[in-house]
């Protein structure tokens, strides 16, 4: 029986973005997804952090009596997955990250935070704001944006994962990056893949960062190819 897989969404995202991916991956194995605390229909009064989201995933596994899981982490979800496996290696089998930012600096964080002002977003990117309202609700989307901005500032000042942490992660890990993705870089993605004892890197042609516009069949093929090897 194949190991089930858990899909972890990115910053400002929710499990609703994985509906098509989850459906197609379900032909091969059991697939789970969750909303990180404060996202989607999950409410929270707590500040966002990678540690909090990893704990959300651990609690989800315990609640569903899942003893071993493979993980596909998109963007921030990939960062959460690596932190989770660093702290609880026995719970996780293989990991795939897609479009994950690893090289967090104060300068990069500030550039991202400038884009996360709800009032400006309503004027500059109204269509994106509407999508956030659909994901998180009209009363909660601003909280998600503001808490995400604070989390990014914290990551810039003090990255949750240090370079020495990657050496300690022995799980088979595939670091993926879209050819047209500007959130991360090939340099940092390949560097992390080299630091991981069982890491590898794969570029996905013609792929941009937003998961909403990613061709689902392409992602499914990458996930199944990696997860099914010796599984």
UniProtKB/TrEMBL annotation:
GO molecular function: acyltransferase activity; carboxylic ester hydrolase activity
Keyword line: Acyltransferase, Hydrolase, Transferase
Ranges for domain AB hydrolase-1: 4-114
InterPro entries: AB_hydrolase_1 (IPR000073), AB_hydrolase_fold (IPR029058)
Record has Glycoprotein as a keyword: no
Gene3D superfamilies: alpha/beta hydrolase
One matching Pfam family: Abhydrolase_1
Protein name per Swiss-Prot or TrEMBL: Putative hydrolase or acyltransferase of alpha/beta superfamily
Organism, as annotated: Aequorivita sublithincola (strain DSM 14238 / LMG 21431 / ACAM 643 / 9-3)
